[in-house]
Design brief:
The protein is an alpha/beta fold. It is 56% helix and 9% strand.
Length: 338
């Protein structure tokens, strides 16, 4: 590959992955971003291409000059993949001492920094060596859902678009979590197309999603289901003040949703205006029809008083939580319009 003095332009992880799956490897990979998934994923994909295997390097044990000298030397057993994580400081440097990577070898540098923080010097050197800068920033919800669809197909499965979006909503946007759930889903579906109902059956939702189940029960007026969620949340490390905070946030979302609907904002635009996932907006719109503005004001007052009683020691935390949830669920039945 011809050398160039231009700057390497960061590419999304799936682009680098597609190259490797087609059998193309590069001499230098710079993986920059908070999503550590891509560094480990690319290493796994690259490793079979190197006869001499993989060697993990550590800046605590070696000088950077020694590391770069090592990767510039051919090995006796064919090409080797060298990996170095925690390269934040290194990739911020303008003066680059890496002159070359031996033919057949490859160096992967990973750092939990934004791609924009990679120095110009490194962007030039990556380009000169025919390498690639991989943007490992956390994906947005849409990109994460698209990745889920692609990964399901790669594993030989099928998934509905709405099911992929729902999976991201439940699990979050961390690709490491999504990878695990996708693998479970493909096995669970056993050749069938994955649907939203299947996602509910195989998915291990994160703790925030479990908290959402409590919020949904309270905001829907289902006191029995709401009370049943509390022990599970407590076992996951949620305390009563945090539960109150989550409930207050949901009621604030319902209030904002109700305001938008009163203003005549189309339902399909509500999620964008709220800045939330479409499934959260869909749920909030349904809940908004069951809550008047006056009932929402009472809900905020209830949570504020319960929190004050808790902080002043007037009532036991467990009793305060149960009382507040019962009161809030009862408010849901008030459908008078504000």
């Amino acid at each position: 590959m011809m050398k160039s003095s231009s700057l390497a332009v960061p590419v999304p992880g799936p682009v680098a992955e597609a190259e490797i799956l087609k059998g193309m490897t590069r001499s230098l990979y710079v993986v920059a971003g908070e999503e550590g998934f891509w560094a480990s994923r690319l290493c796994r994909l690259l490793e079979p291409s190197f006869p001499a295997g993989r060697e993990s390097l550590n800046l605590e044990d070696m000088e950077i000059a020694d590391i770069f000298f090592l990767v510039s030397q051919p090995t006796f057993f064919g090409g080797k993949l060298f990996t170095l994580t925690g390269a934040e400081g290194l990739l911020a440097q303008q003066e680059i001492v890496l002159e070359s990577v031996a033919e057949g070898n490859s160096l992967l540098l990973a750092a939990k920094i934004k791609p924009a923080a990679v120095s110009r010097g490194w962007l030039v050197r990556v380009s000169e060596l025919g390498g690639i800068v991989v943007d490992a920033s956390p994906p947005d919800s849409r990109t994460a859902a698209e990745w889920v669809e692609t990964e399901v197909r790669r594993l030989g499965g099928r998934i509905r678009k709405d099911a992929a979006q729902y999976l991201v909503f439940l699990v979050g946007r961390r690709l490491s979590r999504l990878e695990s759930e996708v693998q479970k889903g493909v096995l669970f579906a056993a050749g069938k197309e994955i649907t939203r109902s299947m996602v509910d059956e195989f998915c291990s939702a994160d703790s925030e999603a479990n908290a959402f189940a409590l919020v949904d029960a309270v905001a829907s007026g289902n006191v029995q289901r709401a009370l049943a969620e509390i022990p599970d949340l407590m076992s996951q490390g949620f305390n009563v003040p945090r539960i109150f905070s989550i409930l207050a946030s949901q009621f604030a979302l319902i209030w904002k949703t109700k305001e938008l609907l009163v203003q005549g904002v189309p339902a399909q635009e509500v999620a964008k205006d709220l800045g939330v996932h479409p499934f959260a907006a869909e749920k909030a719109m349904r809940q908004a029809s069951a809550w008047s503005f006056s009932a929402l004001q009472e809900a905020f007052k209830c949570l504020l008083e319960a929190d004050e009683d808790l902080k002043t020691g007037k009532v036991d935390a467990g009793l305060a939580c149960e009382h507040a949830i019962c009161y809030l669920a009862a408010l849901c039945t008030r459908r008078s319009r504000a």
